[in-house]
Design goal:
The complex is a heterodimer of chains A (about 120) and B (about 110). With about 120 residues, chain A is mainly β. Chain A is built from no helices and eleven strands. Chain A has strands spanning about 5, 10, 20-25, 35-40, 45-50, 55-60, 70-75, 80-85, 90-100, 105-110, 115. Chain B has about 110 residues and is mainly beta. Classes of the chains: A mainly beta (about 120), B mainly beta (about 110). At the A-B interface, strand 5, strand 9 and strand 10 of A face strand 4, strand 5, strand 9 and strand 10 of B.
Chain lengths: ~120, ~110
Amino acid sequence: EVQLVQSGAEVKKPGESLKISCKGSGYSFTSYWIGWVRQMPGKGLEWMGIIYPGDSDTRYSPSFQGQVTISADKSISTAYLQWSSLKASDTAMYYCARRGVGATSMDVWGQGTTVTVSS
Amino acid sequence: DIQMTQSPSSLSASVGDRVTITCQASQDISNYLNWYQQKPGKAPKLLIYDASNLETGVPSRFSGSGSGTDFTFTISSLQPEDIATYYCQQYDNLPLALTFGGGTKVEIK
């Protein structure tokens, strides 16, 4: 079964760093792009960026460039989203999702990771 | 950057009704338009890809059409299990971007 399994919920204080993960299984992890999507409480979906684990080619939405870092470790089929200094406005649900080979869409999604940033 | 305008932002319809949602791109995106369903507390699910192709396992009451800048998503006969928020998403290759529309919340009247 093809699946993406994300790390668990996080509660952090402003200024702290954080790295959440997304582990792929059931397919060739290095052959598909993995994207990250933010959903703030009660709001819509926002595309943050995407990485190709095969060569770590990474692209960011202009809205998120410089705010987060996307990375991947192909040896353990895991992609990451990290912050160096969290803000309260980073409180959201974060989803990873796979972009199909040569596709324009995201066909497999993780279950989501809730990040809460509060003092 | 390509902007996506989705409408309406919400709608209420009866079981069995035909429901239509539109998505407009700020520039020509060919058929690079996808539709997702998100039920409360769940991850989004791909329903339609490349404007009109039904994802495997998705009921045939869901359909999509359009090309260029104007796209339509239709539920031919609304069912109680279709209560969700629906999002369009465009794909741009240069630069690589997958931008979502604002979403349409579908409720039962």
